[in-house]
Amino acid sequence: MPIMGPKAGDAAPDFALEGIPPAQAGVYRLSEQRGKVVVLAFYPGDFTPVCTRQLVDYEQQRQKLSATGAVLWGISTDKLEKHERMAKAYALSLPLLSDPQAGIASLYGVRSLMGTARRALFVIDRGGVIRYRKDEPLSLTYRSPDDILSALAHANLLPAAPETVPA
Predict the structure, then answer these.
(1) How far is CA 74 from the centre of its chain?
(2) What are phi and psi of 69, to 5 degrees?
(3) pLDDT value at position 26?
């Protein structure tokens, strides 16, 4: 199946979505993240077995990911109320963005035939360019936090190690 939507090297389509926890400006805008590395994790839905494992795994490994300076957002077609229940049930602090019309999933080429988001991961550099894209056609597996770190390293998006000063 050919990849639809933007590929590595393309500009990331901008969007504004509501999410849990609520954004300070009311919506999460990709354009407001310029200067930061952003990881978008599209997933089919809250409270499903693989998605729950994925989000809990991301939450448990959140320190590793935040140490890179990257911003991680989960995006599904679930409504805010369901995201709120999911976040409370599993003590999730990573933002879960709501794309109820699947407009952003369509824009990124990850809308399923059932109208939900397919599982896919996008890494966007500080200038808004997609540096990594990985689709999971059957949505039965997901990219682990270590896979995300590898993608960041491969795209040269990890922060430089501090130089050691000789004593």
Answers:
(1) 5
(2) 85, -5
(3) 83
Q: What is the pLDDT of residues 96-154, one digit of tens each?
A: 999 999 999 999 999 999 999 999 999 999 999 999 999 998 778 899 999 999 999 98
**Inter-residue contact 38 to 14 (CB < 8 Å):** no
Mapped to the 3 state alphabet, what secondary structure does 18-49 carry? Answer: CEECCCCCCCEEHHHHCCCCEEEEECCCCCCH
> Cα separation of 61 and 43, whole Å?
18
Model confidence pLDDT, tens digit, residues 53-91: 999 999 999 889 889 999 999 999 999 999 999 999 999
Instruction: Identify which of 32, 10, 14, 13 has the alpha carbon closest to the alpha carbon of residue 23.
Output: 32
Q: Is the dihedral of CA 124, 125, 130, 134 positive or negative?
A: negative
Q: Which residues form the catalytic set? A: 51
CB 51 within 8 A of CB 45: yes
CA distance 66 to 115: 31
